[in-house]
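Checklist before submission:
- one chain only
- standard amino acids only
- sequence pasted in full

Submission:
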Amino acid sequence: MWATAVGVARVRAVETERENALFRDPLAQAFATAGGLGPSSSSSPPLPDDEAARRRRLGVAFSIVIRTKFLDDLLKQASASGVRQVVLLGAGMDSRAFRMDWPEGTRLFEVDTAAPLDFKASVLRQERSVARCERITVAVDLRDDWPGALAAAGHDPAVPTVWIAEGLLIYLPEDAVELLLARIGAQSAAGSRMGLTLGSRGVIERFGADAVPGSAASMWVSEMPDDPVGWLAGHGWEADSHTLRERAAAYGRPISTPPQREERPGGLISAVRRSCAH
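Returned file contents:
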């Protein structure tokens, strides 16, 4: 699945080269190149001939750009509110430890399996990259006891944490999503924050039907609940849900096509932990 993370890096590399880029990710191209996706200066990977498939691919790339900016902003707000622990779940090729400005004392934990973390480490060595905060990698499968591994790596559940699960939950079956949220909640002091991306309703129907076996879309299994805010309230989080369309417009990248149907709650989630009731 971490080949998907390299594909995401490729999208971020293309965005980084835009004049009006919503973020700059100087490491993205190095990850993409090392993963076998050539230079982004050749514009972008050849698009499929099929118009519908082409539109879908462009749509996925667009959503990656918007969600990256959304979560960058959420992390800046969490830092400004005094949160100094960051946990990236399924970190993939995330380079926020290297490309964002972090307040002194910030500790950032990257949780993922050993294979992507090892691949990433080799690229970081080659690029001589230096993190801008204390960066701690935690090699563990999210199906295993990752809270134990995180605690062993120095995470302190008694102080607030900002949790990021970007492009992750769509790959997990519903029971695994529930378990993940329960575990996050158990490690979250009051004042903790969380940023999630959820698969919007109908996305599997639209993308999964003719997805190439082994492609990212072929592994999507879970969509967001009809009421994500209520769902997260049940897990002890006060959440806001944002649509891609709304955030894209706010970032100066409005979506030109009219909404397909009445826009449902969006899959970009920001949440705050108000109390420690587990």
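Reviewer check: The longest strand covers residues 107-112.
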